[in-house]
Amino acid sequence: MQIAVPQPAPPSGTILIVDDMPTNLAVIGALLQANGYRVLAAQSGEAALRYAARSPAPDLVLLDVVMPTMDGYEVLRRLREEPATALLPVVFLTVLGEPSDEELGLSLGAADYISKPIQPAIVLARVRTQIDAARARELLRNHNAWLEAEVVRRMAQNELTQTVSIRALAHLAEIRDPETGNHILRTQAYVLALATELRNHPRHRTLLTERFVALLARSAPLHDIGKVGIPDRVLLHPGRLHGEDWEIMKTHAAIGARAIELAELDTEQEVDFLSVAKEIARWHHEHWDGSGYPDGLQGEAIPLSARLMALADVFDALITPRVYKEPMSGEQARELIRAGRGSHFDPDVVDAFERQFDAFCAIADRYADAGWRVRAA
């Protein structure tokens, strides 16, 4: 067959031709090379698989169907099984002209189906179309990958901004009450340890998903944010509070919850961690038996988030020094918390604390204030 060979054009892609007939390889190869394509030739299915697996991979495969040992359909199946070649566009070149043959090839993932004997103009047009389409898909995949990476980057940036903002607000309350030191870091870690332990409990595992536990840890530092609303004469009083001053101090729970509620109202959509933070701020001084404040909630009417913080807050207060008291040892604090099981604290939370007691002591030491360490006994 005579083929008019135009002036060579700059290379525009690599094409793998697979045919067991050397004459067909030569004819199609000459046509493609004359039109600016780089050509690879394989006379068997096995050789085709080896060429296709090389890096860089060809841009397109022109694949004969009828070949000995391994036919074109089997070659295509194997190409689709391997991640490196699964997306490689394949066009069948074959003498099989029945609609069922074409249907089978397309069902296996062929991009197109050209009957022999070939018509050069049709081959070139189909090749150009498939390579352009493959490059467009690759650009789209790269763009989508970039977009996904950008979304991840921005989410991480937002997470960091949110975390820093929370810490800044929490430290604002802490600065006004200098005795608390690294209290927010310790209580945050205690809450995380308790929540992680309770994820194994049948009554709590539904609520304590991985996401909710992360929300708890993020929200915990805001538990005492309401102390910014307490007058200095009460907040900085060098000793235990009594009477009216104690009643004023107790209002920090409601003040903190109200401040977070106002922040929620400023947002256009619900922010999950603010909802959890509001629960913790308002109700972390409630008692399991209903004797706490500010609302006298009892039992499971107290949100689990606040029940966790209630124990974490008390443990930290017991083991850290105050101007009006010496710090307790870890074991002394443990005994007091045991004594409060079912009265001050949720029994399930106390049981989780018992299992995590060593972790609590390690957390206390890790975030200890200068010149102080928790005493084991």
TrEMBL record:
Residues carrying 4-aspartylphosphate: D64
Entry annotated with the keyword Phosphoprotein: yes
Ranges where the Response regulatory domain occurs: 14-131
Gene Ontology terms, MF aspect: phosphoric diester hydrolase activity
Domain of life: Bacteria
Residues spanning the membrane: none
Chain segments annotated as coiled-coil in the UniProt record: none
Keywords: Hydrolase, Phosphoprotein
Any one biological process term the GO annotation gives: phosphorelay signal transduction system
Domain HD-GYP stretches: 158-369
PANTHER family: CYCLIC DI-GMP PHOSPHODIESTERASE TM_0186-RELATED, CYCLIC DI-GMP PHOSPHODIESTERASE VC_1348-RELATED
Protein name: Response regulator receiver modulated metal dependent phosphohydrolase
Provenance organism: Leptothrix cholodnii (strain ATCC 51168 / LMG 8142 / SP-6)
